[in-house]
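Worked problem 6 (solution included).
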Amino acid sequence: MIVRRGRSEDLPWLVGYDDASEDWIRRCIQFEEYFVAEQDGELTGFLRFSRFWGKIPYMDMIRVLSSHQRAGVGTALFRAWEDAMIEEGEQHLMTSSEWAQAEPQAWHRRNGFQAAGSIDFRIVQPSPEIFFLKDISGARRG
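Solution. The predicted structure is:
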C-alpha cells in the first residue's frame, strides 16, 4: 500500500467517494489537504483535513472503501497525516464524530485522541458532535 498526498488526477475518484462539493475537493487538492491510499494502482481510501481556526490540523473526513476496511488502510492514512503534521511542527491534531457513533470514537481513542467537548448541531444532524484532540508536541518519528 502507498499513502501519498492527493493529486489532481485523483479528482474523479474523490468526487465519487467524498461527500464534499467538487469545488471544495479541488480546493483541498490544491492546498494538499488530502492523503490517499493506493493499492495495486487503485485508490482504496482518503483522509481530508483542514485547519480549525486556520491553525489546528483538523481531520474532516477519513473514508476507506468497505472492501478494504479492517486491513490497516485507515491507520496508514492517519499515520501519514500525523507524520506530515509532526514534520510541519504542529502541536496538536483535532477531529470529531457524532455523539451516537461509538465505533469512530473508539478508533479516535485508539489513535491517541482524547475527548475535548461537544456541540449540539441537531438542526443539521441527529446527535451532538464530540471533538477530540491529540497532543503531538513532543512526538518524533524516525
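Discussion: The longest strand covers residues 42-52.
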